[in-house]
Each structure stands twice: as structure tokens, then as C-alpha cells.
Design goal:
Blueprint (H helix, E strand, L loop, with lengths): L10 H17 L39 H9 L5 E5 L2 E5 L1 H6 L7 H14 L4 H17 L4 H8 L5 H14 L8 H8 L4 H17 L1 H11 L5 H8 L2 H5 L3 H11 L5 H8 L2 H5 L3 H11 L5 H13 L5 H10 L5 H14 L2 H12 L5 H11 L2 H4 L2 H6 L9 H9 L14 H4 L5
Antiparallel strand pairs: 1-2
């Protein structure tokens, strides 16, 4: 894989990497849904399948144009149509009629499709832009040819049309992943930043609607030589983590091996959320990340380990090893986890051992606190705090004791003096 660090791996590490990829690709294979290759819409959708997200049409007065008036207005048969919207009157023009194609239904929707095709090829750039506005909604009813025209308009000779086409692609990618696959792949790598940004925004939406498809795009991007592409791809990993399944875990593992530190940092930010979902996979990836040369990646691995079950031998060994790491921040983070791993006596002995070589004052302070035994070394008040309170004495026991000249909890009462026994004379 391009862009990865080339390192010598032990046989055991190679096996762990293989096991991870095997687990990701085999045991937890992606649950793909059959889709129309042109539209990307599910085929034979049952009750257990997801429904494709519908496009969101921006509100405007064109929404209240009567359906019978939309086509005459969009074709120029009528120049203007008056409507009332939000307590105001508006005069709708041809451009508004083309936008209103997005709200047509039934037979009129199919007629509107032909008009939209004509609009996308019109000589007037404003008409083409209005057509791009309607494209996502019309495509839900009749997608034929629309995405071919979208691809052409992305390279239109008018800048405003190209911008509208990029915005349109951003909106349709999450709804029509198959129909836009090749176009999206091209735009993600386009030399113009604005077009790349729009494409990545669409890919971000795809992460939510079709995470398994988004993983395919991210996988290819992580193999690019281009540094920006790998970084931006790694930045999307958290979006596919919850629903991308094993494919997403696999991608995190690859990104953690990238030669670029920022890419690895992006991947490491997924470790803690992953630890809440898949402890076994998170442990494997944390084991790799804690050996990273970058302290931020290492600390992310340690935060992941804090979430993991520390009774797990692998996680425990990582913490103990991290206590002697060359990076002080890593040592400090691991030292703070030690009380979760050991009983009091073993903890004090281990901390005493670490103190012999530790020079960092922050870490020494933590270790000294852990070696301090208040029951033995503390003040009287500290020692007494560990004493269990005496149980309450029943009232009847108190009365019996007092009748015998004793006070409960205190020394025995002194017998009355002889002078007090003598009768008093008036």
C-alpha cells in the first residue's frame, strides 16, 4: 500500500496484522445491499433494508406553483405566473418554473424530466444552473441521463455553472452512490481545491447514508501519494466508525501505519470510540499505536487502554511497558492507570521500583502519592480515619453497666467517697 511506513515486523506482529485484516474481511464481511448501477437506489427493498435518503429541496415560492402551470412556465410558454407565499406575492419566471420541476409528481414528473434535460443543455447558463437545482429531486423519480449531464456540467465553460454542478454533486452523492461513483472519485482528486472540497463534503454525507460504500472511497484515498488526500480521508474515519463495521476497523489500522504523522493522529482519534464498541480490535490497534514515534498518537492509545478492560493481559502489559517509555507524557499517563491494575501493597512496591530511575518531577509526585501508606506513615488523624467506628451499645446494656457503677466506653466510675455516704444533718 502506497504511503505506508516500511518497517521490519516480527513474525508475531505480522500474524496479528493478518488476523486483523482476516477478521475484518472475512468474519465480519460487509453487508452490501444490491443497488441499481445507474441510480444507486436499493433493488427489491424489504422491511429490513435501509431506505435511501431523500434529497432536501430548499424552500422558495416556486414550491407553490400549481403543477399544471410548472411545465408551461419552465418551457417559456408563459412568461410569468403570480403566486402567494408566506403572505407575499411573487411573480414567477422561467427559472422558477425549472426549479419547480423538483415538485412534480405522477405523469407530469416524466414530462418534467425531458424539460430538465433540455434545461441542462440550454445556452443560457442561468437556465443550466436552475436545472442543476432540480436535478437531485427529479432523479429520484427518473434518473435517466441526468448524471451524465451533471458530469459534463462540472467542466462547463462558465464558472457559476461549474460551482452549481459541484454543489449538486455534493447533494446527490449520499443518495445515489453507484451513479456518482466514478464522478466522485475524479472530483475528490481534482486539482481545483473548491471542487475537491465539495466532493469531500459529499463523501462526508455518504459516510452517514452508505458507510460501506464510503469505506471503499476512503480505502482508495489512503493509498494515494498525495498527502492532503490521505489526511482528509483519515479525517472521515470517525464518521464511518459506528456503521462501517469491519471495513472501517481495517482502514483505521492502515492509517495508523501511514508515514504521515497527521494521518496517524486522525486515525488514533478513533481508538477511544472503538474501545467502547469492539475491545478486541481496539486492543490490537492500541498495541500498534502506543509504539508510535509521535506522542499524540501514543497518548491516544493510552486513553484507549484506559477505556479497555485492564484485566485483559494484553492491555495490562501495554500499561506496564508504558511506565518506562522514553516519552514522559506517556509514562505519566500509564502511571496514572496503575492503581486499576494492582492491589495496594503490590502497587507500592512497583512504584518504589519505578522511583529509582524516574527523573520527571510530575511522575515522581504521582509515584510518591501511590507509595504513601496513610495507615502506617500518616498522622494520628490519618491513621484514625482507617479505624472502624465502634458499634452502638444497646440501651439496656448501658443501664446495666451504670447500675454496676460503670460507664459505657469509658473507664469505670470511681466509688462514692465515704463523706458522701454519711447522712447530712440539718
Amino acid at each position: 500500500m502506497k504511503g505506508l511506513i516500511v518497517v521490519e515486523k516480527s513474525l508475531s506482529e505480522k500474524r496479528r496484522v493478518h488476523d486483523l485484516r482476516h477478521f475484518a474481511r472475512g468474519e465480519m464481511s460487509r453487508d452490501y445491499i444490491a443497488r441499481d448501477p445507474r441510480t444507486g437506489r436499493p433493488i427489491n427493498v424489504g422491511s429490513g433494508h435501509r431506505k435511501a435518503k431523500r434529497s432536501e429541496v430548499k424552500e422558495g415560492p416556486w414550491m407553490v406553483i400549481p403543477q399544471q402551470a410548472v411545465i408551461p412556465l419552465a418551457t417559456g410558454q408563459i412568461e410569468s405566473y403570480r403566486v402567494g407565499w408566506k403572505e407575499k406575492d411573487y411573480h414567477m419566471t422561467r427559472l422558477d418554473g425549472i426549479k419547480a420541476l423538483s415538485v412534480l409528481s405522477g405523469v407530469l414528473a416524466h414530462d418534467g424530466h425531458a424539460i430538465l434535460i433540455d434545461s441542462l443543455m440550454h445556452s443560457d447558463p442561468e437556465v443550466r444552473i436552475a436545472g442543476l437545482f432540480s436535478l437531485p429531486s427529479v432523479a429520484e423519480t427518473c434518473p435517466d441521463e441526468l448524471f451524465d449531464h451533471l458530469s459534463v456540467l462540472l467542466d462547463d465553460n462558465v464558472a457559476s455553472v461549474r460551482k452549481a454542478a459541484s454543489d449538486c454533486l455534493k447533494n446527490v452523492v449520499p443518495i445515489f452512490p453507484s451513479a456518482t461513483e466514478s464522478t466522485l472519485a475524479f472530483e475528490l482528486r481534482h486539482q481545483i481545491k473548491g471542487r475537491r472540497d465539495a466532493a469531500f463534503s459529499g463523501l462526508g454525507g455518504l459516510c452517514r447514508t452508505w458507510p460501506e460504500v464510503a469505506c471503499d472511497h476512503i480505502d482508495e484515498l489512503l493509498q494515494e501519494e498525495n498527502l492532503e488526500l490521505r489526511r482528509k480521508a483519515a479525517g472521515l474515519l470517525r464518521k464511518v466508525l459506528s456503521k462501517g463495521g469491519a471495513a472501517a476497523w481495517d482502514l483505521i489500522g492502515w492509517a495508523l501505519n501511514d508515514m504521515d504523522v497527521e494521518t496517524r493522529r486522525q486515525a488514533s482519534s478513533c481508538l477511544v470510540p472503538l474501545a467502547h464498541r469492539e475491545q478486541r480490535i481496539a486492543t490490537i490497534l492500541a498495541e500498534r499505536a502506543i509504539l508510535d514515534s509521535d506522542s499524540k498518537v501514543m497518548l491516544a492509545a493510552i486513553r484507549c487502554i484506559e477505556v479497555l478492560d485492564t484485566d485483559n493481559g494484553r492491555a495490562r502489559d501495554l500499561v506496564l511497558s508504558g511506565c518506562t517509555h522514553k516519552d514522559a507524557n506517556v509514562r505519566l499517563a500509564c502511571v496514572k492507570i496503575l492503581p486499576r491494575l494492582m492491589g495496594d501493597e503490590i502497587l507500592r512496591n512497583h512504584c518504589d521500583s519505578l522511583l529509582r530511575d524516574e527523573k520527571d518531577e510530575r511522575i515522581r509526585s504521582e509515584l510518591l502519592q501511590m507509595t504513601f501508606d496513610a495507615q502506617i506513615e500518616g498522622t494520628e488523624a490519618q491513621k484514625n480515619a482507617y479505624l472502624a467506628p465502634s458499634p452502638n451499645v444497646p440501651q439496656i446494656d448501658r443501664e446495666i453497666a451504670e447500675s454496676q457503677g460503670k460507664t459505657v466506653g469509658l473507664e469505670d466510675l470511681e466509688p462514692p467517697s465515704k463523706d458522701e455516704d454519711k447522712p447530712r444533718h440539718g
